[in-house]
């Protein structure tokens, strides 16, 4: 129905952003809401409307490639929009695509809601169909990986990141395993930074 929306981001929550367009606030679910900024500039967000019997949800992405991978993922039996968002939030789409191409189930089951059966289904359904995405997809910077230790001055940003990860489906048990490492990262200052680093740690847990 819609290809993209252009407007101002007026609200950011752990699960979604609000995009104001002509005095209407669109509730848009996105892999990492904190990748967006609240400012006076208009932003283009590529969207997908997911219609169910009990809801009509809008999912938004910063790039067409990100949306294309999302659409491929939700076609797999066992992966819903929330699960696809959790996979995209890892910030490593190339790794996801390579894992599918190499039939690496061990990597795929690290995501919330993805068991061995679903991982196998991802491989069966998507292997050989994602090559074009691998050539064009954009990767985020990983310059925030340097470990520094000390008192964390950004507790609010850290707590927002924990809430966002919970919204993506990560369990309290999983998050408790990495929280102390996040608290030690005094070089991280934004919620997006904490999200990126936390997801890197979560993918190394299993």
UniProtKB/TrEMBL annotation:
Subcellular location: Cytoplasm
Entry GO terms, CC: cytoplasm; Holliday junction helicase complex; Holliday junction resolvase complex
Keyword DNA repair attached: yes
Coiled coil regions, renumbered to chain: none
GO terms, molecular function: ATP binding; four-way junction DNA binding; four-way junction helicase activity; hydrolase activity
Every Helix-hairpin-helix DNA-binding motif class domain range: 71-90, 106-125
Record bears the keyword Cell membrane: no
Keywords on record: Cytoplasm, DNA damage, DNA recombination, DNA repair, DNA-binding, Hydrolase
Record-linked SMART domains: HhH1
CDD domains given in the database record: UBA_RuvA_C
GO biological process, one term: DNA recombination
UniProt remark on domains: Has three domains with a flexible linker between the domains II and III and assumes an 'L' shape. Domain III is highly mobile and contacts RuvB.
Family, as annotated: Belongs to the RuvA family.
Self-association and partners: Homotetramer. Forms an RuvA(8)-RuvB(12)-Holliday junction (HJ) complex. HJ DNA is sandwiched between 2 RuvA tetramers; dsDNA enters through RuvA and exits via RuvB. An RuvB hexamer assembles on each DNA strand where it exits the tetramer. Each RuvB hexamer is contacted by two RuvA subunits (via domain III) on 2 adjacent RuvB subunits; this complex drives branch migration. In the full resolvosome a probable DNA-RuvA(4)-RuvB(12)-RuvC(2) complex forms which resolves the HJ.
Protein name: Holliday junction branch migration complex subunit RuvA
Lineage of the species this protein comes from: Bacteria, Bacillati, Bacillota, Bacilli, Bacillales
Gene name in the database record: ruvA
